[in-house]
Amino acid sequence: MLTYSFLFALSSVIAVVSANNGCPVFDLSILALEGNSVGVQQVHDGINMYITGNASSDTAIVYLSDVFGIQLVTNRLLADSFGRAGYLVVAPDLFNGMPAPADINGQPTYDVDAFLAAHGPNVTDPIITATIDYLRNEVQVAKVLVAGYCFGGRYAFRFLAEGRCVDAGFVAHPALQTNDEVAAVRRPVSVAFGDLDDLNPQAERDTIETILMDTNVPYSADLYGGAPHDFAVNANLSDPKQKFAKEAAFFQAVEFFKYWVQ
Ligand SMILES: *[C@@H]1O[C@H](CO)[C@@H](O)[C@H](O)[C@H]1NC(C)=O
Ligand SMILES: *[C@@H]1O[C@H](CO)[C@@H](O)[C@H](O)[C@H]1NC(C)=O
Ligand SMILES: *[C@@H]1O[C@H](CO)[C@@H](O)[C@H](O)[C@H]1NC(C)=O
């Protein structure tokens, strides 16, 4: 498994390098880093959803955002990018219109603990379950994948458990996950970590990797150098290491899904 993870990391690197040599393995243009989002917001079964991508795809990605929600354009742009990879993408509004403020670090009085307490699994699981039910029963997709970032990363792990009707997942820089939630994973999962992520220091990364190894599910775990928490969504694009990490983590997810979900 370690060898596989290593080869996987290497193949991501080679792909991106080749693209720079005019011989692209991945079409980098599908990933939008800036600009306007192209999807729509619709309410289904009482849940506000950002919907984008390929409406005729039989495979949907449920995009689970960080605390800034679908209100933050970088989350919508990433959902759009998965859409251009060929998927129908649905991102439920996990915070019912009231995400954490985008300039949270500039608001020292913002009560993060209260925000997180108001959005525990008892509140968040039903939103994700309703989204999956909508996709399976009304849209009638054949497969459902999850891609979760930071706050949403924990829920990607949770919904990869038995009986959640999800086929595979991607998790970037997760937050607040418990070991039990990771141990309950029963579907293929790929994880992206940054070595500057204070929520996932080396000990936590090692714990997650060891637990995933013991589950016997197909998994990969890639580590990006110079990448802080939330890099896969909100990288500083002026910093080459962060920009590479964001791009590579996206294609890590796309490649993993293409391989493990046929
Ligand atoms: C959309 O999905 C359909 C059905 O899987 C597929 O045939 C088509 O190539 C996809 N389009 C894009 C642009 O990926
Ligand atoms: C969810 O759980 C928290 C913590 O136990 C509790 O304060 C809150 O009222 C619960 N919310 C709902 C909607 O059940
Ligand atoms: C982004 O990265 C650039 C290049 O390293 C740096 O000069 C700048 O201060 C960074 N911006 C923020 C907001 O951290």
SSE arrangement:
Blueprint: H1 2-20, E1 40-44, E2 47-53, E3 59-64, H2 73-84, E4 88-92, H3 112-118, H4 121-139, E5 143-149, H5 151-159, E6 168-172, H6 179-183, E7 189-196, H7 202-215, E8 219-228, H8 231-234, H9 240-260
Parallel strand pairs: 3-4, 3-5, 5-6, 6-7, 7-8
Antiparallel strand pairs: 1-2, 2-4
The protein binds 2-acetamido-2-deoxy-beta-D-glucopyranose (3 copies).
Strand order of the largest sheet: 1-2-4-3-5-6-7-8
- Backbone structural class: alpha/beta
User: N-to-C SSE series?
Assistant: HEEEHEHHEHEHEHEHH
Largest sheet: 8 strands, mixed
Primary descriptors:
262 residues, alpha/beta, eight-stranded mixed beta sheet, binds 2-acetamido-2-deoxy-beta-D-glucopyranose
Q: What do you see in this structure?
A:
By secondary structure, this protein is α/β, with parallel strands linked by helices. Helix content is 42%, strand content 20%. The chain has 9 helices and 8 strands. The chain has an 8-stranded mixed β-sheet with strand order 1-2-4-3-5-6-7-8, with helices on both faces. The relative contact order is 0.14. It binds 2-acetamido-2-deoxy-beta-D-glucopyranose (3 copies). The site of one 2-acetamido-2-deoxy-beta-D-glucopyranose has 5 residues, from loops.
